[in-house]
Amino acid sequence: MHIELTPLTKERLEQSLAGRPGQFKMFYDTEDCGCNGVLVIRIVSEPSPTDIVFQSEPFTFLCDRQQELLFDESMRLEAEEGYPAYKLTSDSTLFGSNIRVQDRRN
User: Fold this and answer.
1) 106 falls within a domain
2) Is residue 32 in some structural domain?
3) H-helix or E-strand containing 13?
């Protein structure tokens, strides 16, 4: 898998790290949502045992191997201008248009 990042997206993700080490985990959160899950981007200190690294530049991106099939091979992550959210798309799918970053580092 690969995620294409716009310049604004790179800038916002860098701000989210706040000068601290971290990795971005693409995660469908299914707790208390009553649906198939809500896509979030979690900042984690390290991968969990079931995570795979699918991109390492300019940032490290992870996902759980059980959720890997929910994503496409090539995607685009775009920061929303004037709004603290992101949109993840591919040529065939809109994965989410109000994706938030959750900092889950220790």
Assistant:
1) no
2) yes
3) helix 7-17
Query: pLDDT for 3-60, tens place per residue?
Result: 999 999 999 999 999 999 999 999 987 666 556 678 999 999 999 999 999 999 999 9
- Look at residue 85 and tell me whether its pLDDT is greater than 90: yes
- CATH code of the domain covering residue 78: 2.60.300.12
The position carrying tokens 């248009």 is: 97
Residue with tokens 């959720």, as numbered in its chain: 67
d(CA 101, CA 23): 11
> Nearest 5 degrees, angle CA 11-CA 13-CA 16?
115
What does residue 37 show for φ and ψ, rounded to 5 degrees? 120, 155
- Structural domain contains residue 67: yes
Residues in the chain: 106
